[in-house]
Amino acid sequence: MSTLKNTINLGLQIVPKSKTMDSYALVDKAIEVIQESGIKHLVTPFETVMEGPEDQLFEIARKAKDAVLEAGADEVLVYYRIQIRKNAGVNIEDKIGKYSPK
């Protein structure tokens, strides 16, 4: 198990509201920001989970939210889920690696 300090997991769900635009296309804008950041992440049907330093992840989350608004959303609901350990890092692989195809 990895013990990278300052590494957290942040689950980010952005739910855009728009009267004229497709919600999935707006969510794609948020995912693009995350992908372009280069941070380790996992896109799931309900949220995207990122791994890295807390400050960096919250900055990426803010940019992702802004990208959805700039793309035309009238409003967004943003949900965060965070796992932080006091004396060790939190890594996606430690939690789900055993389920990855070999």
From TrEMBL:
This is MTH1187 family thiamine-binding protein. It comes from Shivajiella indica. Belongs to the UPF0045 family. Coiled coil: none annotated. InterPro entries: MTH1187/YkoF-like, Thiamine_BP, UPF0045_domain. It holds the Pfam family Thiamine_BP. Gene3D superfamilies: 3.30.70.930. Residues 12-99 form the Thiamine-binding protein domain.
